[in-house]
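If you are new to this repository, start here. Below is one unmodified record pulled from the training split, so you can see the exact layout before writing a loader.
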Amino acid sequence: MTRTGPYLTGRGGLLRALLRLAAFLPLLVLGAHAQAPPDEDVKPVPLLTGSAGFITNFSGGQPDLHPIATPLVLMPIGQRWVFETRVTFENDLIHVPGRSGFHGGPVEKEVEYTQLDFNATSYATVTVGRFLTPFGIFNERLYPAWIRNLQSDPLILPIGIGPSSASTGGMIRGGFQARPQFSINYAVYFSALSTTSPIDSDRFAGLRTGIFMPKARLEVGGSFQHLLEKERSNLFGFHAIWQPTLLPLDIRAEYANSKRGSGYWIEPAYKLSQFPFLQNEMRRMQLVARYQQFFTADLVSDALPPINTRECEFGLNYYFMDGLKASGNYGWQFSGRENLNVWTMALTYRFVIPLGPAGSAR
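And here is the target side for that same chain:
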């Protein structure tokens, strides 16, 4: 079946508007840069941060031990430039029949992104290099093990982020207060084709934008991307994050659509801090659930499920201290091929280490 309409035509109005916006934003950046002098009062220092974790998966009854460390280096250059890079070290330890214990191969190393940021104004940052593709919210905001509420990936995560979750090119991003009631954030980006693994990337252009309403503690937004190679199709998605004022509840949701598949996930997480008993223990606990569905499309992708799939998960997180979290979740995956029970247990830790003395610039 051939799809038509403004979202799925390469020469449609949305693509032309995206290209006009990408061409106009640098003028806004340069104009605002001329009016906003740099802040000379703070001396930035290099920072080593990131996370480490030990994740255990039981998929269909088969155990898989997964140690992972993800250091991130932030290196300020003057008052307006920042160099940042994130590297992942991980391994999969599996039980080999006929042998005792768990065995794994060499440690896998991957540079997830390496980018140079120029803080042009309070409203715009220009990025060049290799950066996480800002399609949806999970890849950029929720992917690290210490941030995510459930350790498993959403089924639709590969849609729109490229073959290695990153883009090679340039991006302009930022935010501004449009009215007292809400503010707008945006990211406009272009990625060039790279076939060198593991830093491969597709050639595409895209836009993500969101509206944040502080009083309602609600953000809603959308993503649009046009592939400039292969089938030259369009991808689009929507996201929402809501934290009600009266409840310690965090609700996240995403939808994504492409010619290689579509689907959605919704994830509520509730802190037990309002319980009247064992308050010291309860305030450290968080109940989590996620329901998701994936639907196949005309084209296939090795990174996506080959058939229509549903998955339901429930989990519990316990925060020992700031940055140290134990979590466990259990889920069911239903598809036309087989049904699986999935167990996951994890211990994750976030670290922050300044690499220089803090102080005021002179």
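Two things worth knowing about this chain: The chain has one domain: 46-354. The two ends are 65 Å apart (CA to CA).
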